Amino acid sequence: MEMRDRLVAALASVVLFVLSVRGFDARAGKPNFIVMIMDDMGWGDLGCYGNPARETPNLDQMAAEGMLFTDFYTASAICSPSRASILTGRLPVRNGFYSTQKARNSYTPQEVVGGIARSEVLFSEMLQKNGYRNKIVGKWHLGHRPQYLPLQHGFDEWFGAPNCHYKYDNKYIPNIPVFRDDHMTGRYYEDYEINDITGVSNLTQIYIQEALNFIETQASKKQPFLLYWTPDATHTPLYASAKFRGKSKRGLYGDAVMELDYGVGSILNKLKQLKIDGNTFVFFSSDNGAATYAFTEGGSNGPFLCGKQTTFEGGMREPAIAWWPGKIKHSQLSSQVATLMDIYPTLMELADISLPKDVFFDGQSLVATLLNASEYVRPIFYYRGDMLFNLRYGDFKAHFYTWDTPKESQDIGYHYCPGQHVEGVTTENFTDYSHRPLLFHLGRDPGEKFVIEFNSVEYRETITVIDRVLGEHKRTLEFGEPQLDWCDLAVQNWSPPGCEKIDRCKPAPMSRPYRCFWPY
């Protein structure tokens, strides 16, 4: 009997050791998760990525205490499809966040009828079913109609808004509501001030406090949690609180970055104070590249070409930092090619939850990379709307199509590649190279300036491999029902849930659905 007890004890020790190596500690319970997604923040905006202003000490420290990714991507160079891909682990063309207007970027302004489909299973829903309490703080952007809002898709709490914080006239377009859980508590500019002259607003401070309060509550309850923190101060119109206004060398955009950096530091310090940092996995990134069309009111994409709205590296490559004291080793620099869609399977593996069956995931778990620094070759697919523009495999990137800024966008003052022109690459018109793709080596040429010669051995050998990877992708690709084709002024935020309690309901016009037009 004594021998048997010793064998059982030894086996238990082995199991605990294996679980610990994988990142799971049975004695600590399920890990908490904090996913931080910034808005239009570029790869080159952080000190740890080389920004010369060095105004992000907390994020730089987070990188020093964890893992910084150099080759991390979004699934879309515009907000809503990117965010849908994060929460579903699937490309926008699979989860429906695209329009059928050829190669045009689209998103969810409040006249869009669609939103996240009920058939999509978000990682928030999977965590909720397995005992997690989930909160989103900040921008949602997956549809503003009641059936699309966060509490219908796995979140227990919400403080934030369904759309961008643009200012409207409340006559033809209503101001955006701010929600507390399932009901609005006011509107931007009316109840939540954003001074569009000075750029002062206290919203980021509110979002920080909401996060801290939630963490404290969940720590006291000892219930595992997901915090999805999505502040939007770096999206135009920019804002920062009075405490940070005028502090940055980089103007108002830099003020916003400094305040968000302060927020990250406040959240990580709270985890340490509560002694739950060792059981909390934190991931920081951005939804897409910096908005170069905002000129000096936009961020930096470092050495990369162009920015938001494009499938050049500046539009698709993101800052990304993973932090988990005691699990992720300090000061790691990973060149593993990865994507925001990887967050979903990574969280599932860390929480020991099986992925939904009969769902094709484009994301892959990063647990082996995070805990063991493993690296492997995998493809990255760059979609612009409903069309695959580029494919990366290894260090090589093929361009099947190119397009800088559509004329319709130029007509309203946008330019996605200001001050950057690469002949035959940053093309003013939609240009088809699918018969003989342009090929770049991102190691030697991260700025996509020098096309590899078509008659070279390197080109022929690489294109053969890329054709094989492309064929496999097409074989498994199944388009979801497009959610961003139809618009209707009647579905705007005229009378969100709870508006009657605070006298913020507004009369809606008659319903007249029409095909959305996307100039992007």
Measured by DSSP, the beta-strand proportion falls in 15-25%
The dominant shape is: globular
Task: Report the helical percentage.
Answer: 25-40%
Mean pLDDT: 95
- What's the main sheet like? 11 strands, mixed
Distance between the termini: 73 Å
Structural class based on helices, strands and sheet pairing:
alpha/beta
How many DSSP H or I helices?
Answer: 12
Number of strands: 19
Task: Using the CA coordinates, give the radius of gyration.
Answer: 23 Å
Poorly predicted spans: 6-27
Summarize the structure.
The protein is of the alpha/beta class.
Write the layout of secondary structure elements.
Layout: H1 2-22, E1 32-38, H2 57-64, E2 67-73, H3 79-88, H4 92-95, H5 123-129, E3 133-139, E4 157-161, E5 177-180, E6 183-187, H6 203-221, E7 225-230, H7 251-273, E8 280-286, H8 313-316, E9 317-323, E10 332-334, E11 338-339, H9 343-350, H10 367-372, E12 379-384, E13 387-393, E14 396-399, E15 401-402, H11 407-411, E16 431-432, E17 438-441, H12 457-476, E18 486-487, E19 514-515
Parallel strand pairs: 1-7, 1-8, 2-10, 2-11, 3-4, 3-7
Antiparallel strand pairs: 2-9, 4-5, 5-6, 8-9, 12-13, 13-14, 14-17, 15-16, 18-19
